[in-house]
Amino acid sequence: MKNIILVLTIIFTMSNVISVSANEIPRESAPLCATEEQIVLTETLMADILIEVQNGMGYAEAKAKSNRIIFNAVISNQTNGNGFGILSAIANNAIFQYRDMYLRPEFYAENERKVKIIIADVITQYANGELDYPTAVKKSYEKLYQSVNPSFNYDEEFSKDSCYRDIPAVNGSLFTIARKLLIEAKM
């Protein structure tokens, strides 16, 4: 019975094209390993908190509130076997993104256009099915790093021990914008 309800919930969620509102978790903020089921479950548990964050609630308060809700749901077996680790990561990433968008709306508006230009070829390849999502994300990240340091080699730098890496400073929100653009390319 649980599986039927879960499948129906996922189908219902995916079949409705709804503009993103504050009670929805932006898919670009979710960890790459998160499933749609886990994202929908986390949305269900913390939708009200996302609305509060959009209206000005601080990150630490929202994180504490969502962690308590998720922890209680996990302890009382209301998460279909999904653990606190992944559900809290989904929630915390969404809270961070909503909070960042609340504090810096102009940053997102200005930089979406710039990121789109920087990763245009990756977006095209992904939209045409030439790249899978994880590869497109990796190539987008590399392009963003190369926009700061053209000689940056992603594979070479990330194969080094972390204390020897020479990674250009790039605002982390640009990576979120890149993931958003990739997701939109498949819609």
What does it look like?
The protein has 187 residues and is mainly alpha-helical. The chain has helices at 2-15, 36-54, 59-75, 84-103, 105-118, 120-127, 133-148, 154-158, 172-185.
The helix/strand class is: mainly alpha
Flag low-confidence runs. 3-21
Number of separate strands = 0
Mean pLDDT: 88
Strand fraction equals: under 5%
Tell me the span between the first and last alpha carbons: 31 Å
Oligomer: single chain
Largest sheet: none
- What radius of gyration results from the CA coordinates? 18 Å
Relative helix content: 55-70%
Shape: globular
How do the SSEs run, as a string of H and E?
A: HHHHHHHHH
The DSSP helix count reads 9
SSE blueprint and pairings:
Elements: H1 2-15, H2 36-54, H3 59-75, H4 84-103, H5 105-118, H6 120-127, H7 133-148, H8 154-158, H9 172-185
Features:
187 residues, mainly alpha, 9 helices, globular, disordered N terminus
What's this entry about, in short?
With 187 residues, the protein is an all-alpha fold. Helix content is 68%, strand content 0%.
